[in-house]
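Re: folding output
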Amino acid sequence: MPGTPIETTTETLLETDWVGLYVVPWGTRILLALAILVVGRWAVRRITRLTERALERVEVDPMLVRFLGNLIYFALLVVVVLAALEQLGVNTTSALAVFGAAGLAVGLALQKSLSNFAAGAMLIFFRPFKAGDFVEVAGISGVVEEVRVFNTVLRTHDNREIIVPNGQIYEDKIVNYSARDTRRIDLVFGIGYDDDLKQAKALIEEILATDERILEDPKPTVAVVELGESSVDIAVRPWVKSKDFGAVRSDLLERVKAAFDTHGITIPYPTREVHLRTDGGNGQAA
């Protein structure tokens, strides 16, 4: 029949066009896009690590190194994704416009996260603390481990990891106990009014003089600060290296208490006298 060869030829052409025009080109594009993603991600990680090592070699603060490393990683990753989309034939200009509009919508929905990001940048720029500092931020005390893009990681004395949003840190007061090389220990010891004041001061001064961790300059202060209701209060204010603060403070408390006990100096504590009264039938106390 005259129509049969023509129909067969048309079907063959359609099958040939489908494979040649769609399957092969799109298969190649998809494979190239996947290759760009895989190789690009590897390259991004490599570049980020090299950048971090270069910053560490010039002795940039470790906290800043990690923060910049995160920014570089995500920025380059966006470039890799756009390159893969372009390989698939997506108009990157239109994609950027769509991403921009989506980013605006997401930004409005995630204002808190953006404020945390901005606060993180401010913490890195002004550097109120660095990695390894012992700080009190947002009512939490701990050692700074890392400042991330949206939050800061603290490690407590009992080895707990606490993650604090950067916005809370920047909006609240920041107390950096490691900002200075030295710190002053403030202690107050109370002795009884019947005890020898000069002897008590001499014992404290001797303890301070025999502790090598206590600095000679500034000179420690030992002075009476108050005549209390039941005690004579002696203020003890030595200066130490910041790293020795906790250990020296504990040792002073223990050594002064032991010295007072040995020499019979009392440390008064609050007492209360309780009088019990029972009324008899005649109204007199029994």
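--- second protein (sequence, then structure) ---
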Amino acid sequence: MFTGLIEETGKLLSIENIAGGKRLRISISNFFDDLKVDDSVSVNGVCLTVTRIESNSFLCDAVGETLNKTTLSDIQQNDELNLERAVRLSDRLGGHLVQGHINGIGIITNIVKLGGNYSFEVEIPAQLTKYVVDEGSIAIDGISLTVAKIIDKKIALSIIPHTWSKTNLNKRKIGGRVNIETDILAKYVEKILQGSKTEDNRFTDSWFKNLGY
């Protein structure tokens, strides 16, 4: 589990083809000096497991399913990647709960500089729009952001100078693909309201009236 607050960006030092996927070697600073094998790291919003620690870098594997569902299939050597270590129970939750499980891929449709801030517009898959609300949370390439506005399948996001400088958003271009993870709470609420297969029609008008609503 993560918070969507990017700790640093790391450079993709190498990509190696392996059976069923790719092995990534990513640079890290001394800030990540407590990183261990088997730890989880969010890489552009994708939860990956550390398989080896080397001098100022770590290795992780992205399997075929991960590559198919995320933009890790697009990355190239020397790209900057957003990195976040898994949250500890004692940490402050400065962003929102992020699982590192990507729900879909979005397309950047507009980037506008507004004073010190930047306005991003991202087109998200139609099936994800029901999980997004104005002023709600969403993770873009692992970054916890607030939705400023929803226009059909597009969401508008305001990027503050700190986020712009500390993440790889400053390298993004119109037409670029980004990993999308919607708010986990919305998905749980949907599941509860749907009920089980034997309770498909449970939440009807009469059901609510019987409860006094």
